[in-house]
């Protein structure tokens, strides 16, 4: 693969904007999250500065955010499972409740030692997904922490890694494509065994002699509209008119568009918008109307 150094040799972490209207979280896991499952395999450490998820043959583990968000700019630093992580999946995503849920996904598919992780992304609207794009990364995501970000506003969803956009999903409700904009979502993350499909389509199984597998999280930041008792912390006015809430109308500038093209040219390994065999009745409508294709 080509070197990323020419584009972003010292990638800056995306910093959450300090907002008087939205809620900006400084990232204490004791305050912002709770463990949902794992029977002790998930741990909050260092006075709330670090969270770890572990997986062994008996169980994985997971956590959720205390808050529900309706739009936001959300960052999490993650260090993925090192070594032979084949069969494991580290999932990090936003999701609403109910049968017609919305969801914005990162899933990190483990691999055998020395092989690249696959970053799997997806967007669900009203319970319908099937919008997968997959990428390799231009660095070893197990050697150190890297920032995985979701910008979610009424116009678009942007997935970014260390400040570099890898995917944009635009709002195309005007042509009948559901877009997440009405249902509040919590942050979820889990580490679990998916060796029936995760690595080379399930051909490579989890090596339990390498267990426990551990992923680590730190430096959570959210500049976001928090829903509480049906009311938004951003209010009912037009917070996007405030400079401190510029993320609510943010899009990709020309430099970011070039970086996005660079990532998609060099590191994208699957795009549902080019998979004509999967959609014999025709590609989804957003594929011909947006940069998804």
TrEMBL record:
Residues in GH16 domain copies: 18-217
Family statement drawn from the similarity comment of this UniProt entry: Belongs to the glycosyl hydrolase 16 family.
Top-rank taxon: Eukaryota
EC number, as in UniProt: 2.4.1.207
Localization: Secreted, Cell wall; Secreted, Extracellular space, Apoplast
Any GO CC annotation of this UniProt entry: plant-type cell wall
Gene behind this protein: LOC108980623
A Gene Ontology BP annotation from the UniProt entry: xyloglucan metabolic process
Leader peptide range in chain numbering: 1-26
Protein name: Xyloglucan endotransglucosylase/hydrolase
Xref: SUPFAM superfamilies: Concanavalin A-like lectins/glucanases
Function per UniProt: Catalyzes xyloglucan endohydrolysis (XEH) and/or endotransglycosylation (XET). Cleaves and religates xyloglucan polymers, an essential constituent of the primary cell wall, and thereby participates in cell wall construction of growing tissues.
Gene3D superfamilies on file: 2.60.120.200
Glycosylation sites per record: 111
A molecular-function term among this protein's GO annotations: xyloglucan:xyloglucosyl transferase activity
Chief subcellular location: secreted
Entry keyword annotation includes Cell wall biogenesis/degradation: yes
Keywords: Apoplast, Cell wall, Cell wall biogenesis/degradation, Disulfide bond, Glycosidase, Hydrolase, Secreted, Signal, Transferase
Active site (catalytic residues): 103, 107
Description of post-translational modifications: Contains at least one intrachain disulfide bond essential for its enzymatic activity.
PROSITE patterns: GH16_2
One Pfam match: Glyco_hydro_16
